[in-house]
Write a structure and sequence with these properties.
416 residues; alpha/beta; Rossmann fold; eight-stranded mixed beta sheet; six-stranded parallel beta sheet; 22 strands; 22% strand; elongated
């Protein structure tokens, strides 16, 4: 999404401008063509040489330089841009943009470009919450600008409140989302499930598995980057939700099933990459089970503990039955996952048929380069028509892109 994209990064005169150095570096490393435009006062915080070193391109700031070339250059920059991101955006620049003032290189380019505008406000708490700043931001939103809300935390002044510039990862996510608004999933609603579930035994113990959620989060990110409205239904994981994705956190299989059904009516795609537990305890103890209690021992002095389990709902199988009956979701593209330790192809084909899936993605989780917790994956993609694709080992982001490619193809063939 960022590769070969022509991105203008505007830097305003605020203390958070130093954080934009990492942003420009990450954009350049991702293959974007980055032109940096600095306001006069931004140069008081970070020198232009720093940004030119990170972007490998000249830095622009002076609209009124002696040769007059800047007057022509600001039009060229405006016309070539695919995105104008102002990071950080100060109250002063936000006010100029809201009211069409073009008295420096950055504001002149902003007024001349047709590219989407993304603003990441960063300033003192009371400046951000001031009615004038909020009115200016609302006016820009109404015109189609994307606002990355500042974080709440300790500010340079020592005060606590809103006004902190978000981390680079958040800013990159916002930029990728904006660039993908016209992508091949624009207007589509995609549900992605991710992570494992935790079926409680008592208030402190649960039955779970080793799923990290990385594959599901990569799929949610890829779908977002192609313009989809993404609902990410996530079990407990140690991951931050991708920017711009609607997150619903769950713990148990039943909660996951209920969350899916609450969104399924308007969805175009369900990608069930979560690893829901097949069984749950038949009874959940109200208090922590003590190891020396009668409840935890099968017989006195045995040191054994018998736990009775019951089967959890099979979410995809239930959905298959609903689709057969013409219930909501009958036109849904359904993608399942199978994490196997043996007889992978046999189990995958059986699951594909039994759950009436459009695609099934299977992997051998005993491999060191595939499965739970790894950053790469080695998958086989099974199609409803019997075809099977043996994919090479790839980063999970690339696996996600391959899966979404196939989902897009299926959407193009499906008659709603």
């Amino acid at each position: 999404m960022l590769r070969n994209a022509h991105i203008l990064v505007g830097i305003c005169g605020g203390i958070a401008s130093y954080k934009a150095v990492e942003l420009v570096s990450q954009l350049q490393q991702a293959g974007a063509l980055v032109d940096v435009i600095m306001t006069e006062h931004a140069e008081d915080f970070v020198k232009p040489l720093t940004f030119s070193t990170m972007s490998h391109r000249p830095v622009y700031s002076d609209l009124w330089e002696a040769t007059g070339e800047a007057a022509e250059r600001h039009i060229a920059l405006a016309e070539a841009a695919e995105l104008l991101a102002i990071v950080p955006a100060t109250a002063n620049t936000i006010a100029k943009l809201a009211h069409g003032i073009a008295d420096n290189m950055l504001s002149a380019v902003a007024l001349a470009t047709q590219a989407p505008l993304l603003l990441a406000p960063a300033m003192y708490r009371d400046m951000y919450t001031h009615p004038a700043t909020q009115a200016n931001l609302n006016l820009l939103r109404e015109r189609g600008a994307y606002i990355v809300e500042p974080e709440v935390g300790r500010l340079a002044s020592g005060a606590i409140g809103p006004g902190r510039l978000p981390d680079t990862e958040v800013l990159l996510g916002a930029m990728r989302m904006v660039l993908g608004q016209g992508g091949d999933l624009a207007g589509r609603r995609v549900i992605v499930t991710a992570g494992g579930t935790q079926e409680p035994i008592d208030p402190v113990r649960y039955i779970g598995n080793r799923s990290s959620g990385k594959m599901g989060y990569a799929l949610a990110t890829e779908a977002r980057d192609r313009g989809a409205h993404v609902i990410l239904i996530s079990g407990p994981v140690a991951l931050s939700a991708p920017y711009g994705v609607e997150l619903r956190r769950v713990e148990t299989v039943i909660q996951m099933r209920d969350a899916i059904h609450s969104f399924i009516t308007d969805a175009d795609v369900l990608i069930m990459s979560a690893a829901p537990a097949d069984f749950r305890p038949a009874r959940v103890a109200a208090q922590k089970i003590k190891k020396d209690s009668g409840e935890a021992r099968e017989r006195e002095g045995s040191g054994e503990w018998s736990l009775k389990l019951v089967q959890n709902p099979d979410i995809l199988r239930e959905l298959a039955i609903l689709r057969e009956d013409g219930q909501p979701g009958r036109h849904l593209i359904c993608v399942g996952f199978a994490a196997e330790t043996h007889d992978l192809m046999q189990h995958a084909r059986e699951k594909l048929r039994a759950k009436q899936l459009d695609l099934l993605v299977a992997n051998d989780v005993t491999r060191s380069d595939s499965g739970f917790g790894t950053d790469t994956n080695k998958v086989l993609i099974f199609h409803a028509d019997g075809a099977m694709e043996d994919m090479p080992v790839m980063p999970k982001a690339d696996v996600a892109a391959a899966i979404i490619d196939r989902v897009v193809s299926l959407l193009g063939k499906r008659v709603n």
